[in-house]
């Protein structure tokens, strides 16, 4: 899509769109998040390497640490412009100057709620306070961006007077904050169209995500001519956060064909890095950077993806430095399983493949999501299991409790004939193995020489991996292995696997 075509659709689109990142200021206002100076420096370096135009490094007047962070980030001489936040008071602007910054983001509340309940100031006093702050900042050589806090709940006429006054006083950029996230795309369009018709000064937007619309509203504002949007990594920020950096950059790139000077391949690693430092993990379904953003399980989808990833992906994971994942579970199709096994260089014959496929489906039906480790273990176990299975498990019943002896009822098919019996033991596994011994005693006697139980991956729903060595009365030994979500089943199937191998030796 070329920019001229987009411009003809959105007549007011600005020639340049700037990304103002406020992860280190509004993002840090995420409840429970506090970054050290060093952590802020590391994030600023990554934002700069990504290519954002402005980095709001902090609120220098709020603490010594904030002032230090802003000043140290400024001293790195990054390509991004470093911005400091300040209330419309001399002291705050001095702190921005003390941090050696050249760009101040000034703000003051303008809505009736802020005027009456927070600032207790008249409209006139608010305008004169803002104007004095701009004049002071400009007199001290600062570039000024001015935000009318809670702009979207401010009377339109007053907002117009307010912005005109700060522009006349010398503001270089005006910013429209939707402080409590009440806008929708339609209201955003109205507001931006109105603002664009009145102001020649570049306009920025700062949108919160209370209704989940921050990205949509920022895109609408850009369509209507906004020159800049404030964003945060992972959409962090007060309450439900701000417009998300990764969402806006990729939506502009992919839906509008607008490429900013951003190295999109760093988006996923930056998201992970910020998530680790702040302790705020992204939900798996977070657009662009969530763990499931390029993950597929359904057979129909995986089939499409294997032929052409764009069948079920809007962009390629490489664009944002992410990777594609194919999950196995109850929706898995044969194609997905084949492709996974190929990745692991595991070759199964048709019978083995069917067994693995059915086991995965049945685990999926029980609500289990099969990890790559689970699949490898299941497939390799099947590969190593007895080639023929003269003895098959047809049924198992267990009775356990505090006052009764553990009792197992086992039904086997032996060479096509079904037999069933019950026995007791010191535990359910022992009871089941005793019942198996009874059922096969006409064919052979077996001893369990070794029994080993491990869990694949941690967690209470981990699959049990049982390895056994059994011997028969002729001195033959054989291994057996089985994986199951139930420890007793895994144990019994492992023992049966070793018995089948012994039987094949006996009959060879
Ligand atoms: O949301 C807001 O209004 C702000 C201001 C400081 C601009 O973050
Ligand atoms: Zn904010």
Describe the structure.
- The protein is an alpha/beta fold and 508 residues long.
- The chain has 17 helices and 16 strands.
- It has three domains: 276 residues, Alpha-Beta Barrel (TIM Barrel), CATH 3.20.20.70; 59 residues; 117 residues, Alpha-isopropylmalate synthase LeuA, regulatory domain (Double Stranded RNA Binding Domain, 2-Layer Sandwich), CATH 3.30.160.270.
- Helix 6 runs parallel beside helix 7 and helix 16 runs parallel beside helix 17.
- The model has no long low-confidence stretch (mean pLDDT 94).
- Bound molecules: 3-methyl-2-oxobutanoic acid and zinc ion.
Kindly name the structural category.
Answer: alpha/beta
The count of domains is 3
The strand count comes to 16
Rg computed from alpha carbons, rounded to a whole number of angstroms: 33 Å
Helical amount: 40-55%
Protein name: 2-isopropylmalate synthase
Family: Belongs to the alpha-IPM synthase/homocitrate synthase family.
Pfam families: HCS_D2 (PF22617), HMGL-like (PF00682), LeuA_dimer (PF08502)
EC number: 2.3.3.13
Sum up the structure in keywords.
alpha/beta, TIM Barrel, Double Stranded RNA Binding Domain, eight-stranded parallel barrel, three-stranded antiparallel sheet, 16 strands, binds 3-methyl-2-oxobutanoic acid, binds zinc ion, Aldolase_TIM, AIPM/Hcit_synth_CS, branched-chain amino acid biosynthesis, LeuA_allosteric_dom_sf
């Amino acid at each position: 899509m070329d920019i001229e075509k987009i411009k003809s659709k959105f007549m007011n689109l600005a020639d340049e769109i700037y990304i103002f990142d406020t992860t280190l200021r509004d993002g840090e206002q995420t409840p429970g998040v506090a970054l050290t100076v060093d952590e802020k420096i590391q994030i600023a370096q990554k934002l700069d390497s990504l290519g954002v135009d402005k980095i709001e490094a902090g609120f220098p007047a709020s603490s010594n640490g904030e002032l230090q962070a802003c000043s140290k980030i400024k001293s790195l001489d990054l390509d991004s412009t470093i911005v400091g936040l300040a209330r419309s008071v001399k002291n705050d602007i001095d702190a921005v100057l003390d941090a050696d910054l050249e760009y101040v983001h000034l703000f003051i509340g303008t809505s009736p709620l802020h005027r009456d309940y927070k600032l207790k100031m008249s409209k006139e006093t608010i305008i004169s306070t803002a104007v004095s702050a701009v004049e002071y900042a400009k007199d001290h050589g600062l570039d000024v961006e001015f935000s009318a806090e809670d702009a979207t709940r401010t009377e339109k006429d007053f907002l117009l007077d307010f912005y005109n006054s700060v522009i006349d006083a010398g503001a270089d950029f005006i910013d429209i904050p939707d402080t409590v996230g009440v806008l929708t795309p339609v209201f955003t369009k109205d507001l931006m169209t109105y603002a664009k018709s009145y102001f020649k000064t570049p306009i920025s937007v700062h949108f919160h995500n209370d209704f989940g619309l921050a990205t949509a509203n920022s895109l609408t504002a850009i369509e209507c001519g906004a020159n800049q949007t404030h964003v945060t990594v992972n959409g962090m920020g007060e309450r439900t956060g701000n417009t998300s950096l990764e969402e806006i950059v990729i939506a502009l790139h992919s839906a509008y064909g607008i490429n900013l000077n951003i190295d999109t391949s760093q988006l996923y690693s930056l998201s992970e890095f910020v998530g680790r430092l702040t302790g705020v993990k992204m939900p798996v379904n977070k657009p662009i950077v969530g763990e499931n953003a390029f993950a597929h399980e359904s057979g129909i989808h995986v089939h499409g993806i294997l032929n052409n990833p764009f069948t079920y992906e809007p962009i390629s994971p490489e664009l944002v430095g992410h990777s594609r994942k194919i999950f196995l579970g109850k929706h898995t199709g044969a194609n997905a399983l084949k492709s996974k096994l190929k990745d692991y260089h595991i070759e199964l014959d048709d019978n083995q493949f069917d067994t693995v496929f059915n086991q995965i489906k049945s685990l999926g039906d029980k609500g289990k999501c099969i990890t790559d480790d689970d699949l490898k273990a299941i497939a390799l176990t099947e590969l190593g299991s007895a080639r023929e299975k003269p003895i098959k498990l047809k049924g198992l019943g267990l009775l356990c409790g505090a006052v009764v002896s553990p009792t197992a009822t086992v039904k086997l098919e032996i060479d096509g004939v079904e037999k069933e019996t019950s026995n007791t033991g010191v535990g359910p596994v022992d009871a089941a193995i005793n019942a198996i011994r009874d059922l096969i005693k006409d064919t052979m006697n077996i001893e369990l020489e070794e029994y080993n139980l491990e869990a694949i991956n941690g967690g209470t729903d981990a699959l049990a991996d049982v390895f056994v060595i059994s011997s028969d009365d002729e001195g033959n030994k054989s291994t057996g292995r089985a994986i199951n979500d139930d420890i007793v089943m895994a144990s019994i199937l492992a023992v049966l696997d070793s018995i089948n191998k012994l039987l094949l030796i006996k009959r060879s």
